[in-house]
Amino acid sequence: MSTLISNFDEFMDGLWKQNPIFVMMLGMCPTLAVTVSAVNSISMGLATTFVLTASCLLISILRHIIPKEVRIASFIVIIATFVTVVDYSIQAISLELYDALGAYIKLIVANCILLGRAEAHAARMPPVPATLNAFGMGLGFTLGLLAIGGVREIFGAGKLFGIALFGPHFQPWVVMVLPPGGFFVLAGWLILFSGIRANKQRKIEAELALKGAKA
């Protein structure tokens, strides 16, 4: 039971507690560049999740074999291998999606989330918790991209996943499909989550103060 709880905590740590976008502020380049639509956001998120999960699993398995002197170079080679798999897979599945994501597919290898998880977690943990943490982190990244891409598509095109929402008279907010739109939406989400965390902290402090007064 304790192992299951520990593994669940590893998963939730990456998914929510250390969300790469809204908490750790990592991977900002693809976050702002490809989130002009929900489809692009999910595609980039799932691609990153696959690379992150697969590379962390392999790195964890090989953690006692890879010499410390070349660990960073080894991690990059492993990550780049899985990025190449994703790159060719997306190209084979949909050329339209491949063109929409552009060079950012290949640039997954330079995403600091991957190397950070490899160095700080996968290289120090057994395969199961390392993989669950990486999978949770990838899903957290995907949800973050979707939260931004969905808002930008709704207000920038009046659609969500290509489905019209507001009818023919809707006037799109052009700024949402431009680079500044990514900054505006990201800032809005950060303000929201910051407010939620602050409110939660105030409740905890109030409960502690009440318990202290009763004591």
Automatic annotation (TrEMBL):
The chain crosses the membrane at residues 21-39, 45-65, 72-94, 100-118, 130-150, 170-193. The keyword Membrane applies. InterPro entries: NqrDE/RnfAE, RnfE. It is found in: Endomembrane system. It holds the Pfam family Rnf-Nqr. Keywords: Electron transport, Membrane, Translocase, Transmembrane, Transmembrane helix, Transport. It is a multi-pass membrane protein. One of its GO terms (cellular component) is endomembrane system. GO terms for biological process: electron transport chain. This is Electron transport complex subunit RnfE. It comes from mine drainage metagenome. The lineage of its organism: unclassified sequences, metagenomes, ecological metagenomes. The gene is rnfE_3.
